[in-house]
Amino acid sequence: TDHKQSNFLRQIIENDLAQGTYASRHWGGSPGDAAHHAQGPSDPARVRLRFPPEPNGYLHVGHAKSICLNFGLARDYGGVCHLRFDDTNPEKEDQEYVASIVDSVRWLGFNWESGGTAHLYQASDYFDFMYRAAEYLVGAGHAYVDEQTPEEMRANRGDFGKPGVDSPFRTRTPAENLARFREMRDGKLADGAAVLRAKIDMASPNINMRDPAIYRIRRATHHNTGDRWCIYPMYTYAHPIEDALEQITHSICTLEFEDQRPFYDWLLERLAEGGLLSAPPPRQYEFARLNLTYVITSKRKLAQLVNEQRVSGWDDPRMPTIVGLRRRGYTAEAIQLFAERIGVTKSDSWIDYSTLEGALRDTLDATAKRAMAVLDPVKLVITNWDALHGAGTLDACSAPLNPHDPAQGRRQFQFGRELWIERTDYEETPPKGFHRLYPPQTAADGSTKPGNRVRLKYGHVVQCTGAVRDAEGRITEVHAELVPDTKSGTPGADAVKVKGVITWVGVHDAVPAEVRLYERLFNDPHPDAGGKNFLDSLNPDSLRTVQAYLEPSLASASVDDRFQFERHGYFVADRRDHHPDKPVFNRTTGLKDSWGK
Length: 597
Ligand code: ATP
Ligand code: MG
Ligand code: MG
Fold this sequence. Notes:
Elements: H1 8-19, H2 34-38, E1 48-51, H3 61-76, E2 80-85, H4 95-107, E3 113-114, E4 117-118, E5 120-122, H5 127-139, E6 143-146, H6 150-156, H7 174-185, E7 195-198, E8 213-217, E9 231-233, H8 235-245, E10 250-254, H9 261-273, E11 283-287, E12 291-292, H10 299-307, H11 322-328, H12 332-342, E13 350-351, H13 353-367, E14 369-371, E15 373-374, E16 377-382, H14 385-389, E17 395-400, E18 410-415, E19 418-422, E20 441-442, E21 448-449, E22 453-456, E23 461-469, E24 475-482, E25 500-502, E26 505-506, E27 511-518, E28 543-550, E29 562-565, E30 569-573, E31 584-589
Helix pairs in contact: 3-12, 8-9, 12-13
């Protein structure tokens, strides 16, 4: 790609590769254990990264940044990237999300198969190992079962500048703790009655080090392990272990996990001491998450939009989900280019939505086929057509499928007596600078001006003579006369100079279609910042559906085919609703940047 820029993560990886940091790794884990198998063939010198989504929703554009980053680094440095489901939270997770995540990562252009090994994992496959590691911590005096109430636990945690208070259960012996922990596992305690906590330091200035919970009791059916467990590891405990078992070298996460890094390191050091894992451990690095203007990327809030039917589903073309962007007409290439352009930094900032659309336009301009479409049609009647060309005759016209790439060939359509044009291309009284169709004008001083001449793109020049209105005053037909010998591409066609060129579709060969015109979903560039309710800034006009006429070349469009409708923007045949006999197109984006204006 054109914009491969260096960044702090590339420098770290290049440095590690140069120093051979991971050249002699040798990990623990016992044979027969799911965790052991996860290590795959020994692969010493390679970097290993992972993208670890929780399967509790659909992936969004923020995840796409992380996917492009992790899979992209693995690709660029000859390493591997694991797709790992961080499925330690059974109530919120579902196989539906697992399937959609797999699909989205593949669609974005990445895969996790490398050297014959499929690097697709789920954290729940390591539950046995995690449990064993927890028993080790208990036995070594590094963890204890706490039976304070959640309220007591919260109160005794302290706060910034205020040390926590030791739990009365903190002094239990390892033997007592082990017995109690096994009772937790065996379902002898009620949900929430106890947690297993790491025993670190209740006075630590880092609140995450004040004896964080590492196991909780939750009677919930897990989509992978079913009812086998009634205790589940906490994310902060599970994640470092997952990374270590998979021999991840660089564990890249977003900045909010910076304060968790000391626990990440503490845990892996303890497990290494116990011989459960051996060095070198994975290292965590943090980067700034993607914040995109006019977009929310909280899964909970996106779920709310879906559940309250403010959008049609996770793949509504207005959603910032990968399935939504795809249905809107985004290409994987555009999203990869976007990720490359925004780069990776260590400080939070906002990225303008136009950056995403700019990447899209830059990729589509070169590839998308062109077509003409009339979105707000009014009929144009060429009143001298029959006299000049004969009644019922049609005139073949053609245009390049893509002006940047003549090899793509040409498209054909026909000019005739009746054409569809945009209603806005006619003005009875033209405003200053209007160069499209208007009838003869008489000024206040009695001076006159003839009806205007415009070129119907790829066709002929016509001169406007007037319009016909119905009883309500609405224009039903615009009238014009053909100017002879002006057909595009014929000798002398340019002798008649015009300032306006308009697009059109023949009435006789137009393809009627439903076109969905999408606008931003929120009117506020920061819909959920600073305690705002994001629902307050929902744009009520984010979808407008029109009945349009399309050029005949579009009759054969298939779902997901992308086009530039000349003058209007980029459009895609809707992947859900489009059928050749009932075409439905979505506007992906306009031709020009309209954000922030
Ligand atoms: P939410 O908090 O909305 O549920 P999440 O961040 O917890 O989302 P995960 O499934 O845990 O979602 O995310 C998987 C990976 O994607 C994580 O490594 C996370 O850092 C990354 N990620 C999530 N959101 C963004 C974002 N906006 N920008 C960059 N990376 C992100
Ligand atoms: Mg998460
Ligand atoms: Mg989160």
